[in-house]
Structure formats: structure tokens, C-alpha cells
Design goal:
This protein is an alpha+beta fold and 189 residues long. The protein has two domains: 54 residues; 116 residues, no CATH class. It is 40% helix and 23% strand. The protein is built from three helices and eight strands. The strands form two sheets. Strands 1-2-3-4 form a four-stranded antiparallel beta sheet, covered by helices on one side. A four-stranded antiparallel beta sheet has the order 5-6-8-7, with helices on one face. A hairpin with a 2-residue loop joins β7 and β8. The longest helix has 33 residues. It is elongated, with a radius of gyration of 23 Å.
């Protein structure tokens, strides 16, 4: 079972849903005033239905958690498609920072937001740099910077909670790994 560690900004998922509802309502209203039973009315219904499905899908995807733990890996939803899975033993710490908010219509260098920085171990060169959606996060040199604009509100208490969950998860894996190694060694004797 996947445990949510950091939620997405729930308000960001409301915009596509609101836009889809307004757009679909407009198309359905326009179709009601169309004379006759021509091709245009069913076409408007089809476009309205497609618009609603796309809006619901976008709202769902934008509300998936940014960080989750599946029992072995930290799952980061910071790109389009499937999440990036980093083995939990390679995650070293969570830190808080500040960076550009990347809000539409704002000057990116003047509008700042809190960021969550995830330190990945240098012993894993495959996690040195990975592609991300730059509006959500940046990944460079074993540091992942998640923009707080698209997460639940970030603060010291959130970072402390994440670090505690990281410690607990790593200790659980160490103890279960030790138990499994001991069981394997005792069976071979």
C-alpha cells in the first residue's frame, strides 16, 4: 500500500475542472438553441463530453500526491507520466528552501515560493540528473528541488515530518533486511 508523504496543491486541480465545466455548459447551452436536428448539435454534445472527461482527468492527475512511499521507494510525481522511484535507502534528507514560484503572469525572479529539497546519495550515479517538469521541480547533482507552488503548504513542520518518516522507513527496511539475512543464514546452516 502506498503511503502519501506530500500532497499536491489541491487548488491547482480545480482550474481545469472549472474550465471544463464552464466550457461544456456553454456548448450544451448553445446546442439547446440550435434549430433542427442537424449534425452540429450531436457534435457539440460530443465536444462537451470530451471536454468534461479531459477536465476530470486533469483534475485527478493534478491532485495525485507529489511524494509517496510504496514500502521500498520514494515515489516522486514531478514529471509527466509515471512517478520517479528512488530506493528509500538512497534518500538522505529533506530540506526547505526558497526559489522562483513560476506562476503564470508573474515575474519569475520576483515572485518566490518555498521549495522542498530532497538530497539523494552520491553513491547512486543514476540519480544524479533526471528529467522533470520544470514547473514542478528541478533535478541537478543529486538534489531535487520541488516547487512549493504545486504542493501542500511547506514549512519547517512539514520538513520535520518528512525527515521523521524517512528515518522510520529506513529503520524498518534495515530491521527487516537484517531479519531476512539472519533467517537465510540460519536455514543454510
Amino acid at each position: 500500500m502506498t503511503e502519501v508523504w506530500l500532497q499536491a496543491n489541491r487548488r491547482s486541480g480545480l482550474w481545469p475542472l472549472a474550465f471544463g465545466l464552464v466550457s461544456a455548459a456553454g456548448m450544451l447551452t448553445a446546442s439547446a438553441f440550435m434549430p433542427g436536428d442537424g449534425v452540429i448539435r450531436p457534435a457539440l454534445w460530443l465536444v462537451a463530453a470530451t471536454d468534461m472527461l479531459a477536465a476530470c482527468a486533469l483534475a485527478y492527475l493534478s491532485n495525485l500526491p507529489r511524494l509517496a512511499f510504496d514500502g521500498r521507494s520514494l515515489l516522486m510525481r514531478i514529471r509527466n507520466g509515471s512517478p520517479i522511484a528512488v530506493p528509500i535507502e538512497l534518500v538522505e534528507a529533506f530540506l526547505i528552501g526558497k526559489g522562483p514560484a513560476y506562476l503564470s503572469g508573474k515575474d519569475d525572479y520576483k515572485t518566490e515560493a518555498r521549495t522542498l529539497i530532497i538530497r539523494i546519495s552520491e553513491r547512486a550515479p543514476e540519480f544524479e540528473k533526471l528529467e522533470t517538469n520544470l514547473r514542478l521541480a528541478a533535478w541537478c547533482g543529486h538534489y531535487v528541488t520541488i516547487r512549493g507552488t504545486f504542493t501542500e503548504p511547506l514549512g519547517v513542520e512539514v520538513v520535520n515530518r518528512l525527515n521523521q518518516r524517512l528515518y522510520d522507513a529506513q529503520q524498518t527496511l534495515k530491521s527487516s533486511g537484517t531479519v531476512a539475512a539472519t533467517a537465510g543464514a540460519s536455514q543454510s546452516s
